[in-house]
Target: 2-dehydro-3-deoxyphosphooctonate aldolase
Amino acid sequence: MADLYQASRSGPFILAGPCAIESRETALQTADVLAGLASKLGLPIVYKSSFDKANRTSLTSFRGPGMEEGLAILAEVKAATGLPVVTDIHHPEQAAPVAEVADVLQIPAFLCRQTDLLMAAARTGRVVNVKKGQFLAPWDMKNVVEKLRAAGNDRIWLTERGSTYGYNNLVVDMRSIPQMQAFGVPVIMDATHSVQLPGGLGGASGGQREYVPVLASAAVAAGVDGVFMEVHPDPDRALCDGPNSLPLNQVEGLLNRLLALWEVVRG
Model:
């Protein structure tokens, strides 16, 4: 893709992949299917997966292979499929080495106000995708955008991923989409983390994956620019976020539905 950010401003796009990098085989299997769908549907798809999930519910939860091994797998995914890749960073010092591989640096929702992390990500020149904290109003993300722009980077995405609603539950206010688009940046709907039940299983988060198509479709109807979804060949066996992940064999059907809706919304 010649210019990922410009493509995101001119048409719909997708971020998809397993929550965490579980293995080289799972990564390549998933990415191969997604690359085929990108070609078949003419839809930009960015492969997403994290080398470290530092905010897992339990100390014993699977976090990923770590930065060195994880970046090697992501580099192989790019070489094998041609898909751009996005992955999380948690510390400012991770920004530069991760940017050598990743096309997009993602800031987790819990860290969206961490100034040093935002500035380090921005200074790489890569696209920076910031997930809106579950604790923030959408209009508060204006300050996040201003921090990134102050570091000289206007290649910014913002992602809606639900807001805390009582205990172990999230709710999505679709008004957040146009409210954040008003900052002049593409806005993404995280349709899978938004159906998460944070900590809902005691030692792990639960989820209601049956509502992923509902939220994704509602967001497209509300004018969202892109959709983020965690997908896995076998979500019930996934090592991270399985309850809110979409089965890989259901992705094509959902993408066809979203493309039809995008066509109507965008006229």
Notes: Residues 47 and 85 are 5 Å apart (CA to CA).
